[in-house]
Amino acid sequence: MFRTGTDIELAASILRSGDVVVIPTETVYGLSANAFNPEAVKKIFAIKKRPLFNPLIVHSDSLTKVEQYVAEFPLKAKKLSEKFWPGPLTIVLKKSNIISEIVTGGNSTVAVRIPNHPLTIALLKLLDFPLAAPSANPFGFISPTTPQHVEEQLGDKIKYILDGGKCMVGIESTIIGFFEDEPEILRFGGISIEDIEAIIGKVKIKNNDFLENPIAPGQLKSHYAPKHKLIFGDLEKMIKKGDYNPVKIGILSFNNLYSMIPQENQIRLSKNLDLNEAAGNLFDSLRKLDKLDIEVIFAEEFPNRELGRAINDRLTRASAERY
Ligand code: AMP
Ligand code: MG
User: Fold this and answer.
1) Which ligand is located closest to the Cα atom of residue 30?
2) How far apart are CA 91 and CA 118, in angstroms?
């Protein structure tokens, strides 16, 4: 039923008709709809089986347009937008009247971003509305970083996937909110806290549980979840503990190989210990491990700096246990 291609005119006409289109961004693939059309936006929630209170990010191609979607743009937020847009930073600001509450999950704030992908920017330029889009995966599962990932999970539910290749950043955007003018990190992602603090000084970091599930914090175990059980922590200790048959263990590591585990069950996220590369390979690697005939995935804890924080955040949510 779906088609994949690079036809932005076709994508634009489907979006104008009130239907959804999957779009590439540098972070992950998005399931997008006309943010000004509540009926179109509702289709996103239905296809993803996403709870209605979970707000969507509004994507645009220009700062002038974004200014119309927000009631105010504090100076620090402006500085960040100038530095990091187009790019993997989402800014949550007080919404203006033209943004409907269906997009914001009933909140008086709206999340806005200019993504850094040439196809999606070209598409947005054809449209006279912004695109509301969450990640193009069923709610709670691993985010897609290639058109094939989207096809596997949602292919029967969508008409068109705009094919922009592999997502270059490969992990979701960092989300920063401005409430009472105080910047606060709501989600770790593709822009590091270190880079943000270099522009606007020290920022608060919100207890992340709130974000993905504002009504029921703590019920986050299935988020970003592979099908196999995932245990997150110190690989040496997990392997030595001996709870699993070594041939039934899959390994997700930064760059180490483990002699007791079959080599074909091991994925190293970055042989050069590059955290950006590791983040970019994370979701695809989890999908590959999910396809193996194993009983458990052991995932390594990454250095808690730069994009390592975003990786640890996703692995914590993907894990059934921490070891
Ligand atoms: P996704 O693209 O699927 O990762 O989902 C979008 C993310 O943006 C979710 O984590 C939302 O909770 C977050 N988000 C969107 N709008 C807001 C908002 N107004 N306030 C706080 N978080 C938001
Ligand atoms: Mg998501």
Assistant:
1) 1
2) 21
Each residue of 147-169: pLDDT tens digit?
999 999 998 999 999 999 999 99
Ligand 1 binding pocket includes 212 (Cβ within 6 Å) = yes
Q: Per residue in 279-317, pLDDT tens?
A: 999 999 999 999 999 999 999 999 999 999 999 999 999
Domains and CATH numbers, the chain: 3-205 (3.90.870.10), 229-322 (3.40.50.11030)
Strands 21-23 and 30-34, bridge-based pairing? antiparallel
Distance CA 140, CA 57 (A): 17
pTM of the model: 0.94
d(CA 290, CA 104): 33
Mutate to test the pocket of ligand 1, among 57, 95, 215 (most ligand atoms within 8 A of CB): 57
Closest ligand 1 atom to Cα of 137: 3
Would the CB of 208 count as within 6 Å of ligand 1? no
For a ligand 1 pocket test, name from 29, 49, 56 the mutation site with the most ligand atoms within 8 angstroms of its C-beta.
Answer: 56
**Residue 243 C-alpha to ligand 2 middle, in angstroms?**
32
Predicted confidence at residue 222, as pLDDT, reads: 56
How far, in Å, are 62, 99, 181, 184, 275 from residue 34 at the CA level? 16, 11, 29, 28, 34
Element (H, E) at 105: none
